[in-house]
Automatic annotation (TrEMBL):
Listed Gene3D superfamilies: Collagenase (Catalytic Domain), Disintegrin domain
Disulfide linkage: 344-349, 452-472, 643-652
Domain EGF-like: 619-653
Active site: 327
Keywords: Disulfide bond, EGF-like domain, Membrane, Metal-binding, Transmembrane, Transmembrane helix, Zinc
Lineage: Eukaryota, Metazoa, Chordata, Craniata, Vertebrata
Domain Peptidase M12B: 191-385
Protein name, UniProt field: ADAM metallopeptidase domain 9
Gene Ontology MF term list: integrin binding; metal ion binding; metalloendopeptidase activity
Protein's cellular compartments: Membrane
Principal cellular location given in the protein's record: membrane
Recorded topology in the membrane: Single-pass type I membrane protein
GO CC list: extracellular space; plasma membrane
Length: 737
């Protein structure tokens, strides 16, 4: 049976769960007619379509996609006077659906029945578009292969010669579904991207100055994104939308890099404080000479850099969805597929540098995302939307824990390997206390004090299970601006940023920062190997006071960089030393990791911020560790003391077990009374509670340790790491997968 042609599509029974589409210039298409009827079946409503075109027909049963919006989905606008306004629009008609073609494993469907039928149907490696006729009443539609949509050539700002050979045709490689089966050991945990979209004034006007039109298109967009990312076991939840109706809040002058820098700075100062989200994407009409967008790589969850910009010009919504999927992919750690051996079962993939309109992520993208998660990036993606946050009717099997559910392992097939959760009822199995979370093992809660997230470096902090929740505490770090590396650097977003460390990350353990003269001379050139970012489409020369924040310069290089993407390396001999720099050639839509890292100390009391050496006061560091933490701890990014072992939070002024109010107790609370008294009685009680977790109980005093050793209790096995959850500081609740 052939896959990916109209006859195959026409003969199939179509079962659908979410999406939307809009028509533009077509070179091939056919007409068909549909008849629709609403059906109510038990607790689940759906819509049935019967379609006829040429000599073929198929019926479709459309199930509402219920996780697309949270209940408190918020639309922000500004008045003419610039006053921020918010509203909670009623968009509860559930006209967005998603699903698959019955009988075809490698199929994805995303449609909207809001006004006629619009959507995407992917069979094998071919995607078709569905749109109502412009002049029809909604019963006549067009179906067409997306590859035949005439589109303007757009790129991510880089032209890579010879990369076509890296992506063989659709008939020579397995489909993405087959490829991802090999990755399920890593991608088995569902991730949730809480997405915020901002639309600029010019694009608002392009939609006829209609808030409703903007809102509908952005909801359709999120639906498309979700149908693409579900292949990677990533779900997209649109948590907010902001529309700039009267003026743009940031400057959109200059090049893509300038606009991106302006946007993420505005986001950090305003949006992050207003609405929780994992990534913010800026939608604007203005083009950048063929550059379709720009985003930071691997920065999802970052307060300062989790964002991207996306050009929505004269293209269809489905083409634009591919652009935003690409830029969001950069936030999720994905690099371009160019010059790598990548396969997605189609002629082009989403992370190709050219905006091709592809709906398929490649094997390279899956590996890039895997690396992000293995390097402990993207911890916020493990937040499962709370039952009262999910814009849906409770639906067992959607892998979201809805109101009235204790767990949700998905379909009966997916639940076969889940020992904790019952399929169909979404209740815990008999004897199970939990089903998921970093503090859940073998369907039981781990005892308090079990480390569930270790510290990565001196600017990161450990977190512990509290014994009553299956979820680990939120990921806390040392407050930005705290001195580190023997007070020669500052903590910044959980990392001690300094030149030597960055040189070693790129060139190996022997490398170190080059003399200042290297930075001054190389970065004054204003070319790809020495610059302070972009000014419009041109590289910006560094001034003498900003040179230390331009292209990184290293010396004592003994090894070449080992990356999936080959960087260009330049050696500049200056005054008896060789200055080494790199250009990763990731494209103009991706900031160059060969630039000096944000937060690096560039002088006394100064740090690098957006290629400028500015006062470290911008970090708002206000922790007096001697006064606030009595010299026995540091302040975390919640401005609470994290105490050293032997001192008790919240102020580290009395004896205790360390940690903070935020990190969870570094001891088993059930064992605490025994630890504060002497004798075997309390210890015996502690051992009775949890014999093989006794290692948690003997962390306090030396005398207790000796008693435990004398008792010949077998130490606990090493604790395996499972899924993470996040503590909501507003409600005091914990959330996780």
């Amino acid at each position: 049976q052939e896959r990916g042609n109209l006859s195959t599509l026409a003969s199939m029974d179509l079962q659908v769960w979410a999406g939307c589409l809009n028509r533009r210039r077509l070179s091939q298409y056919i007409f068909f007619q549909n008849w629709g009827r609403d059906i109510i079946c038990s607790h689940l409503s759906y819509h049935s379509y019967f379609m006829i075109f040429l000599l073929y027909s198929f019926s479709s049963t459309l199930f509402p996609y219920r996780e697309l919006l949270p209940k408190d989905f918020t639309v922000y606008t500004y008045s003419k006077e610039g006053k921020l306004q918010s509203e909670y629009p009623d968009v509860q008609d559930h006209c967005h659906y998603q699903g698959y073609v019955e009988g075809i494993l490698d199929s994805v469907v995303a449609v909207s029945a809001c006004s006629g039928l619009r959507g995407l149907v992917t069979i094998g490696n071919v995607t078709y578009g569905i749109d109502p006729m412009d002049s029809s009443s909604g019963s006549k539609h067009i179906l067409y292969p997306l590859d035949n949509v005439k589109k303007e050539p757009t790129m991510c700002g880089v032209t890579t010669e010879g990369h076509d050979g890296e992506h063989a045709g659709e008939n020579h490689h397995p489909s993405m579904t087959q490829l991802l089966r090999r990755k399920r050991a890593v991608l088995h945990q569902t991730r949730y991207v809480e997405l915020f979209i901002v639309v600029d004034k010019e694009k608002f006007e392009d939609f006829g100055k209609s808030e409703t039109e903007v809102r509908e298109h952005m909801v359709q967009l999120a639906n498309f994104l979700d149908s693409m990312y579900v292949m990677l076991n990533i779900r997209i939840v649109l948590v907010g939308l902001e529309i700039w109706k009267y003026e743009n809040i940031i400057s959109t002058d200059g090049g893509a890099g300038d606009v991106l820098a302006n946007f993420v700075q505005w986001r950090e100062k305003n949006l992050v404080l207003r609405r929780r989200h994992d990534s913010a994407q800026f939608v604007l009409k203005k083009g950048f000479g063929g550059t379709a967008g720009m985003a930071y790589v691997g920065t999802v969850c970052s307060k300062s850099h989790a964002g991207g910009i996306n050009v929505f010009g004269k293209i269809s919504i489905q083409m634009f969805a591919s652009i935003m999927a690409h830029e969001l992919g950069h936030n999720l750690g994905m690099n371009h597929d160019d010059e790598r051996v990548c396969h997605c079962g189609a002629s082009s993939c989403i992370m190709s540098s050219g905006a091709s309109g592809s709906r398929n992520f490649s094997s390279c993208s899956a590996e890039d995302f895997e690396k992000l998660t293995l390097n402990k990036g993207g911890s916020c993606l493990l937040n499962v939307p709370k039952p009262d946050e999910t814009y849906s009717v409770p639906y067992c099997g959607n892998r979201l824990v809805d109101v009235g559910e204790e767990c949700d392992c998905g379909s009966p097939k997916e639940c076969e390997s889940d020992p904790c959760c019952e399929p169909g009822t979404c209740r815990l199995r008999s004897g199970a206390a939990c089903a998921y979370g970093d503090c859940c093992k073998n369907c039981q809660l781990l005892p308090g004090g079990t480390e569930c997230r270790a510290s990565n470096n001196e600017c990161d902090l450990p977190e512990y299970c509290n014994g009553t929740s299956q979820f680990c505490q939120p990921d806390f770090t040392v407050q930005n601006g705290h001195p580190c590396h023997n007070e020669e650097a500052y903590c910044y977003n959980g990392v001690c940023q300094y030149y030597d460390a960055q040189c070693q990350d790129i060139f190996g353990s022997k490398a170190k920062a080059a003399p200042n003269i290297c930075f001054a001379e190389v970065n004054s050139k204003g070319d790809r190997f020495g610059n302070c970012g972009f000014h419009g489409h041109d590289y910006k020369k560094c001034s003498s006071w900003n040179a230390m924040c331009g292209k990184l310069q290293c010396e004592n290089v003994k090894t070449m960089p080992v990356f999936g993407i080959k960087p260009a390396i330049i050696q500049t001999p200056i005054r008896g030393t060789t200055c080494w720099g790199v250009d990763f050639q990731l494209g103009s839509d991706v900031p160059d990791p060969g630039m000096v890292n944000e937060g690096t100390k560039c002088g006394t009391g100064k740090i690098c911020r957006h290629f400028q050496c500015v006062s470290a006061s911008v970090l708002n560091y206000d922790c007096d560790v001697e006064r606030q933490c009595h010299g026995h701890g540091v302040c975390n990014n919640n401005r609470n003391c994290h105490c050293e072992a032997g001192w008790a939070p919240p102020y580290c002024e009395t004896k205790g077990y360390g940690g903070s109010l935020d990190s969870g107790p570094p001891y088993n609370a059930a064992c605490a009374p025994a630890r504060l008294t002497s004798g075997l009685g309390g210890l015996g009680q502690c051992m009775l509670i949890s014999r093989y977790f006794i290692n948690v109980c003997y962390l306090s005093a030396d005398s207790m340790l000796r008693l435990v050793v004398n008792a010949n209790v077998v130490p606990a096995p090493s604790i395996l790491r499972y899924r993470r959850g996040v503590h909501d500081t507003e409600t005091g609740r914990y959330r996780g997968l």
